[in-house]
Design goal:
The structure holds 2 protein chains of 2 kinds.
Chain A (H helix, E strand, L loop, with lengths): L1 H14 L6 H6 L4 H31 L6 H11 L7 H37 L7 H20 L30 H30 L12 H32 L10 E2 L2 E2 L7 H35 L6 H14 L15 H13 L1 H15 L8 H24 L1 H7 L3 H31 L5 H27 L10 H6 L1 H38 L64
Chain B lengths: L1 H31 L8 H29 L10 H34 L15 H30 L7 E8 L2 E6 L25 H13 L4 H9 L7 H27 L5 H5 L2 E4 L1 E5 L4 E7 L4 E5 L4 E5 L5 E5 L5 H8 L6 E5 L11 E7 L1 H11 L4 H5 L13 H11 L7
Parallel strand pairs in B: 1-5, 4-10
Antiparallel strand pairs in B: 1-2, 2-3, 5-8, 6-7, 6-9, 9-10
Helix pairs in contact in B: 2-3, 3-4, 5-7, 6-7
Classes of the chains: A mainly alpha, B alpha+beta.
Chain lengths: 601, 421
């Protein structure tokens, strides 16, 4: 390890201060800070695309069959003749919205951005273990984003089998038009994405294990780094399984194998495939899919731990319990996947095992929530926009988390499986929480990333519009779902045939939801404006604007290749010495040696 | 076009307005020498109050929605197991609603109360093992109750149906449902997807249907003979792609036909009786009140999901696999119409797994009849069995096949989840 550190140091001396070429600085950069920003901007672009897609299908759900200029403007005559969306395109929009949000915004965007920026800076490292692999990881991500985006424009439409792409639907172009070229692009995009994500994750793990600065023991790492570390491990263990699932699906599609197909007649054609099982795909998919939920969520929880402690001016309550729950959640997330499959024809006994393991996850989650709340208790809270988003995250994590208890209970899942209740649940607990954590992270570390400040007032407006819009969208959705409305329905006209009161309720609430969705989207425009404006025109940041203890704030504002001029900082204490009795200031940076007689936490 | 222009204008003006506000704000910050990262007490207090206000609005709108749309909005369950599940659902909902109110109140109230005040430092309070123990153990105990009750109901709901349960097959394909009643012997005939022909959509297996499938594949309009003739006809000119497609089709049929011949060799004609009395029913599924039903689900093409919202029943239909679900409807459609006070109300079977463009329209009406009415309906169907409708010329078979081993073979083959029973 010493050798590695030495080498990194020598590297820094060689290259630290000479002028870099535009291409190597901004495009094929190997600097972790630049790569982090590249991830962020790419993810913001993808996020905007995915949000726009959701607005399109929300219009269809609220006003089915009504001609809309908005739809005809974006979808054109092919997919919205006369301003009315086509059925197939509805499913395509839902599918790509889910895929982009889960993988490109909340996995690539969130982990990619903040692991890259914060792991070396918070650990006191010059850069990632391998700058070159880090660069590759971003370019794989960029390429996969591009392919996914392009797939929206192919003639037969994008993938349409839902973001879970269950075969046989996703394997058979005869079954739905999106399973043609659109699905092929989806699979190739995801394969590239997974390769990039793996390279990135391995890099994060190696960096955390090997490149901690002097004194930075594992139990002195900020919770952000713990969260990124466990996230990276989850990614390394689970993404290859998704890749194998995708490869087998590619084989079924192109080579006539029957991994997932058996006894099928589609479009009048009798397929010879026999003996495959669609359940195999579901097992493989959810073996990634469930850890994926935590790959999305843990970084946000880590970011919010840091933001809440800093802005409540208090140490995070139960630091070790927080690490313990991150590890417990990480471990449990691997043995719960089949709770997505209670009514798919899987053996019911197997289902009951997964009920047990799934409900166990509620315990470490509850510990985290109560620890956040206790951290706020008797704090001295400063409302930066980041703090608002972190508190919003805790609220959505609670609200979405408790409904998980219903869904994890196989007996109750029978009636609400694949209804809007599920949609509401995972959007609140995973979507909103992760997005709020990501926004919090952007506001909090923006001065570190760009050396400038974002506008605080616009941040406030952005937060309040976002949380009102978000709850306004997803709270009513629980009601629609628990009343039984299936998800992925193009419209609910079928209900008018058998239960008019149910139909009226759905139509009412769907309009409400769509209106709130538009309000929330307008709030994001404010963010976009604030973000891009502040990159170039924001007021210049001071070195440690939030009076925080962690190492990244000891690095100078202007970006250096190697992060710190001169020697790397040495760490003497844990990262949460905030408002410590007897100290002059209400924060003590990690680099300050223990005073005489002072006890480390 | 005008609306587009208006929208564009609003967006542009909005952005300009924000830009101007930003500019004013920046200038005033410069004048007062305020730095962006310093949060004024006024801003702090405003956000603290908004936190409290937001909590009240959130809770208020939740309660308002419950009052307006009902506690669950799902109506009474029309099956005994459904009512038990609803009871459990209510219990769980109460627990999580309490948790929701309690923790959100703590969160937002603390956010409001402990906002920064001059001269009041934060409390250095890094951990407390007793408290942490408390919120590990209490959720664990509550979860234990939830898990035990949940598993009990799950086991009951997914247990094997009683032997006297009426067996009905639900066959799904893009985008409709077909029911197959097991007829007088309450046993479904065997099936194999290769037997699908125009007059045997459900691919039911009998000596006649095997012969008919072989005939179709060899001599039908798109059979092998026709394909070969076309491919060998020097007068027909085809584009290479079409020729390749046709050759592939022929090769596939050559493989399939061998399997069909094998099937004919192995087929036990005594099994035909199981199939001949089956009754195929489209559009509406008629059920008898207070009779237990075991539904066997099949799919022809992609995964569908048989979702009976009013009976709290759901099971995916999977190509290549038979899945099962049982329930006992105990409120007739007429009674439910009265309960709901809606003359047009009906039970329904929906598809609840994305299956293609018209997924949302894939449904079958379900009617639960009183026993007398049901028997009348069933009697009207008895001379419209599979055999009567599609193969009236087939040799009559004695209705004697009652050997139990036959049944077990079927269960073993088509029902992996029953293995080890």
């Amino acid at each position: 390890m010493a050798a590695v550190a030495h080498e990194a140091h020598g590297h820094h001396d060689d290259h630290g201060h000479h002028e870099e070429h535009f291409v190597s600085k901004y495009i094929f950069s190997q600097d972790h800070k630049m790569i982090g920003k590249q991830f962020l901007v790419t993810a913001v672009f993808m996020g905007v695309v995915a949000m726009l897609l959701s607005l399109l299908f929300r219009i269809q759900l609220a006003w089915p069959g009504e001609s809309s200029d908005f739809l005809s403007f974006f979808l054109g005559d092919t997919w919205a003749p006369g301003g009315v969306m086509k059925e197939d395109m509805y499913l395509g929009l839902v599918t790509i919205h889910g895929t982009i949000m889960v993988f490109f915004l909340l996995t690539g965007g969130l982990s990619g951005t903040f692991s890259n920026i914060l792991i070396p800076l918070q650990l006191g490292a010059r850069d990632m273990a391998s700058g070159f692999l880090n660069m590759l990881s971003y370019w794989f991500f960029a390429l996969s984003s591009l392919i996914m985006f392009v797939s929206l424009f192919v003639e037969t439409g994008p993938a349409m089998a839902g973001w879970t792409i269950y075969p046989p639907l996703s394997a058979l172009p005869q079954a739905i038009s999106g399973s043609g070229l659109g699905m092929t692009l989806w699979l190739f995009s995801m394969a590239i994405f997974i390769a990039g994500s793996l390279i990135g994750s391995l890099n994060y793990i190696v960096t955390v294990i090997n490149l901690r600065t002097t004194g930075m023991t594992m139990t002195r790492m900020p919770l952000t780094v713990w969260a990124f570390f466990v996230t990276a491990i989850l990614g390394v263990l689970s993404f290859p399984v998704l890749l194998s699932a995708a490869v087998l699906l590619i084989m079924d599609r192109l080579a006539g194998t029957s991994f997932y197909l058996s006894d099928i007649i589609v479009g009048g054609e009798m397929l010879t495939q026999h003996g495959g099982s669609p359940l195999l795909f579901q097992h493989l998919f959810w073996f990634l899919g469930h850890p994926e939920v935590y790959i999305v969520l843990l970084p946000s929880l880590g970011l919010s731990s840091e933001i809440i402690a800093t802005n409540a001016r208090k140490p995070i309550f139960g630091y070790r319990a927080m690490i313990g729950s991150i590890l417990a959640i990480g471990f449990l997330s691997f043995i719960v996947w089949a709770h997505h499959m209670f009514v798919t024809g899987m053996n019911p006994f197997l289902g009951s095992v997964f009920v047990f393991t799934t409900l166990l996850i509620a315990i470490p989650s509850a510990v985290k929530v109560f620890n956040y709340i206790t951290t706020l208790w008797r704090g001295s809270i400063v409302y930066t926009p980041a703090m608002l988003f972190a508190i919003g995250l805790v609220s959505t994590f609670i609200t979405g988390g408790v409904t998980g208890i219903i869904l994890a209970d196989a007996a109750l899942d029978i009636a609400v499986h694949d209804t809007y209740f599920v949609v509401a649940h995972f959007h609140v607990v995973m979507g909103l929480s992760a997005v709020f954590g990501m926004f919090g992270g952007v506001y909090h570390w923006f001065p570190k990333m760009y050396g400038r400040m974002m506008n605080t007032r616009l941040g406030y407006i952005h937060f309040w519009i976002s949380i009102v819009g978000a709850y306004g969208v997803f709270f009513p959705m629980h009601f629609v779902g628990i009343a039984g409305a299936p998800r992925r329905y193009y419209d609910y006209s079928v209900y008018a045939d058998f239960d008019i009161s149910s139909y009226n309720m759905q139509m009412d609430l769907n309009v409400v939801i769509t209106i709130f969705a538009f309000i929330a989207a307008c709030g994001q425009l404010i963010f976009l404006y604030n973000f891009f404006y502040s990159i170039w025109r924001g007021p210049v940041a001071v070195q440690n604007p939030w009076r925080s203890t962690t190492l990244e704030w000891t690095a100078p504002v202007e970006h250096l290749h190697g992060n710190w001029p001169g020697d790397l900082p040495t760490v003497y204490r844990w990262p949460y010495d905030l408002s410590k009795p007897g100290a002059e200031e209400d924060f003590i940076p990690q680099t300050v040696p223990l005073a005489e007689g002072e006890e480390e936490h | 076009m005008v609306t587009k222009l208006v929208i564009l204008l609003v967006v542009v003006l909005g952005i300009l307005a924000i830009a101007q506000m930003m500019r004013v704000y920046e200038l005033s910050s410069k004048l007062t020498n305020k730095q962006e990262h310093e949060i004024s007490n006024r801003d702090n207090n405003m956000n603290a109050k908004l936190m409290l206000l937001f909590m009240i609005v959130l809770f208020g709108s939740f309660i308002w929605m419950i009052l307006k749309y009902g506690w669950t909005g799902r109506g009474e369950a029309a099956a005994p197991h459904g009512r038990e599940l609803d009871w459990l659902m209510n219990l769980n909902l109460i627990i999580i609603t309490i948790t929701f109110f309690l923790t959100n109140t703590l969160l937002f109230f603390f956010s409001y109360k402990y906002v920064k005040k001059e001269g009041v430092p934060a409390l250095y309070y890094p951990h407390n093992n007793k408290l942490e123990m408390l919120w590990t153990v209490v959720p664990a105990c509550v979860l234990a109750v939830i898990i035990i009750l949940g598993l009990k109901k799950w086991n009951e709901a997914t247990d094997l149906a009683k032997p006297e349960a009426i067996v009905v097959e639900l066959f799904s394909k893009q985008f409709d449902w077909t029911a197959r009643y097991s007829g007088v012997n309450n046993k479904l005939g065997y099936f194999d997807y290769k037997l699908t022909t125009d007059n045997n959509e459900l691919a039911i297996m009998t000596t006649n249907t095997i012969d008919s499938a072989i005939y179709q594949m060899e001599s039908g309009t798109t059979g092998m003979e026709a394909l070969e003739a076309k491919l060998n006809d020097p007068n027909i000119v085809m584009v290479p792609e079409d020729r390749e497609k046709m050759e592939a089709d022929l090769a596939r049929k050559e493989r399939m036909i061998r399997l069909l011949y094998q099937m004919r060799e192995k087929h036990d004609s005594e099994l035909d009786a199981l199939a001949w009395d089956d009754i195929i029913q489209k559009d509406t599924l008629y059920l008898c009140k207070n009779k237990e039903y075991e539904f066997n689900f099949r799919s022809k093409d992609v995964i569908h999901s048989a979702y009976f919202p009013h009976f709290r029943a759901q099971m995916n239909t999977v190509p290549g696999l038979t899945t099962r679900f049982k329930f006992t409807p105990d409120i007739s459609t007429a009674e439910m119409k009265k309960i709901k006070d809606d003359e047009n109300f009906n039970y329904v079977l929906l598809c609840n797994k994305i299956c293609g463009g018209a997924h949302y329209k894939m449904r079958m009406m379900v009617v639960v009849l009183e026993e007398a009415d049901y028997n009348d309906w069933m009697r009207s169907k008895l001379n419209k069995t599979f055999k009567d409708t599609y193969f009236p010329q087939a040799a009559p078979v004695e209705q004697v096949v009652e050997e139990a081993d036959v049944e077990e073979v079927e269960a073993g083959e088509d029902n992996p989840e029953n293995e080890g029973e």
